[in-house]
Amino acid sequence: MNYTFQVYIADGQEHFLHGPSGHVQHTQYPLSQTVLEWVELNVKQIRDITERLQTDLHNLLTERTERLEEPIVEGLALLNSYHPYFAYVRLEWAERLKQARQQSCKDVEKLLPAEELEQIPAILEMTQQQLRTLWHEVLDVDVSGGSIQDKLRKLYTESSSNSLCFAFQPLQLRYALIEEGIFTEVLEVRNIFNISDFFVRECLRRELRFRICKNCGRYFALSRNKNAEYCERPFAIPAKTCKEIGALNQWERKKSDSPALKAYTREYKRRFAWIRYGRTTEEAFYHWAELAKLNRDACLRGEITLEAFLAWLKLDT
After folding, report:
1. CB atoms within 10 A of CB 1
2. Separation of alpha carbons 137 and 148, rounded Å
3. Least CB-packed of 20, 71, 91, 269 within 10 Å?
4. How far apart are the C-alpha atoms of 228 and 94, rounded to whole Å?
5. Closest CA to 189 of 173, 205, 201
6. For the residues 171-184, what does the mean pLDDT come to?
């Protein structure tokens, strides 16, 4: 085998060693991130790609011409761009294509089984449904029902349908020294669905807790702040995360419900009316309004008391 694809966990991170010999890359993600992204993957887009790959593979096996490898290689690269797990499929099939080329694409139907690609979308869709159930019934911190072990036991013993339960499969693991200088279990991937299985087990073993973000509606892992309501993913505006948007929304709600804001609004309207009756000038009013905004925001931030702000509003009336 002329490529590397290994998966392990170290320092609370998912680690991937992947690439052809001599060009191995090391990428890492927070534990559970790739599983959550796996659950959110658009199955239709993956099905479209695998169907094109099956067509390209059929053309290659029919005409047995090396130039027909190119669209397959491009399709595998496109598949890989959707999720890091697909790097395994890309590397494995690149290896198989190389072997097929050495055999002049003769008698390679078993080496290049189109049904293997065909099965990916259906298995992915079923896996997503099972993982959504597992997350909601077991790992969601806002769903009551006891400890994670209690919830897990209930799900797997009382579920009306086994198809709702995530099907854990035997995994091939080895205990090895990794480049971080520690020994840990390394997953020897034999099937793309081994990877999510490996990380889900670790989430359960560590009893990680998750919550649905109030902004984007997606699950996120609770780390230090168990009361967090927003995730830190980018949302809509690239420069803003859900957490930042949530903080802005809370600030706006706090302002709208604040006695300081209500008092400021009343006084603003009252003094603006003075211009019409000649009790003040526009210049004097807008000068007061700027000072009032500064004092209002200082009150909302807790830098001055509400009583002090209300007393200031009554000055020069």
Report:
1. 8
2. 9
3. 269
4. 43
5. 173
6. 92
Distance CA 110, CA 108 (A): 5
CB contact set of 233 (below 8 Å; sequence gap of 6+): 213, 216, 218, 220, 241, 242
Nearest to 154 by CA among 142, 145, 162: 145
Rounded CA gap, 168 and 145, in Å?
22
Q: Which helix (H) or strand (E) holds 69?
A: helix 69-82
Q: Who's near 307: CB < 8 A, 6+ residues apart?
A: none
Query: pLDDT per residue over 3-59, tens digit each?
Result: 999 999 999 999 999 999 999 999 999 999 999 999 999 999 999 999 999 999 999
d(CA 108, CA 58): 12
Using one digit for the tens of pLDDT, what is the confidence trace for 257-308? 678 888 888 888 888 888 888 888 888 888 998 999 899 888 888 899 989 9
pLDDT digits (tens, 9 = 90+) for 69-92: 999 999 999 999 999 999 999 999
Rounded CA separation 96/180 (Å): 31
Distance between CA atoms of residues 303 and 296, nearest Å: 10
| Secondary structure E strands in the chain | 3-10, 13-20, 25-30, 173-177, 183-188, 209-212, 219-222, 234-235, 237-241
Which residues lie closer than 8 Å to 224 by C-beta, 6 or more apart? none
Q: Do residues 120 and 46 lie in contact, with contact meaning Cβ atoms separated by under 8 Å?
A: yes
Count Cβ atoms below 10 Å from residue 256 Cβ, excluding itself: 9
Longest CA pairwise span in the chain (Å): 97
Q: Whose structure tokens read 């209002």?
A: 296
Residue with tokens 């080496």: 111
